[in-house]
Amino acid sequence: QVQLVESGGGLVQAGGSLRLSCAASGRTISRNAMGWFRQAPGKEREFVAYINWSGSATYYADSVKGRFTISRDNAKNTVYLQMNSLKPEDTAVYYCTAGRGVGNLATPYFEDEYEYWGQGTQVTVSS
C-alpha cells in the first residue's frame, strides 16, 4: 500500500506561484509513474501533469503547459508540482496519484491508469 499526502496549497493572487508537494509513504514510489489531477467546484476531475518513473519524461494538459512543471525526487519519495502564472481558472483541489504497477503509463491522462490517490490540497487563485 502507498499513502500519498499533498501539501503546499493555499490562496494566491492571479499571476502568483505555488509549489505543491506529494509525499509518499508505505513503500517506495521510485518505480511508479506519478500524476497530478485537479477538480474544480461543479466539475469533473481532470488530468494536469504526468511524470514517468525515472523523471525523464513529462506530459501536461494543454491548459497548464508552459506554466506548470512536474518533478520528482525519488530519494525523498516525493513528487512536486510547481505552478507559475496562476489564473483564477486554476482554482481546484489538486490530487497526487501513483500509477498502477511499475514503469511508464500508456495513457497518463486517464484516471484508470492510477492506483493510489491522495486526499487533495486546495488551491485558490483570486483575480
Strand content: over 45%
- As residue ranges, the low-confidence spans are none
Using the alpha-carbon principal axes, give the shape: globular
* Straight-line N-to-C gap: 40 Å
Question: What is the helix tally?
Answer: 0
Oligomeric state of the chains? single chain
Spell the H/E element sequence. Answer: EEEEEEEEEEE
Mean pLDDT: 96
Name the structural class. Answer: mainly beta
From the alpha carbons, calculate the radius of gyration and give it in angstroms.
13 Å
Helical coverage, percent range = under 10%
What does this structure look like?
0% of the residues lie in helices and 49% in strands. The model has no long low-confidence stretch (mean pLDDT 96). It has strands spanning 3-7, 10-13, 18-25, 34-39, 46-51, 58-60, 68-73, 78-83, 92-99, 114-117, 121-126. The protein contains no helices and eleven strands. Strands 2, 4, 5, 6, 9, 10 and 11 form a seven-stranded mixed beta sheet that branches. The protein is mainly β. A hairpin with a 6-residue loop joins strand 4 and strand 5.
Provide a compact summary of the structure.
The protein has no helices and 11 strands. It is mostly beta strands.
Quick tags:
seven-stranded mixed sheet, single chain, mainly beta, 127 residues, 49% strand
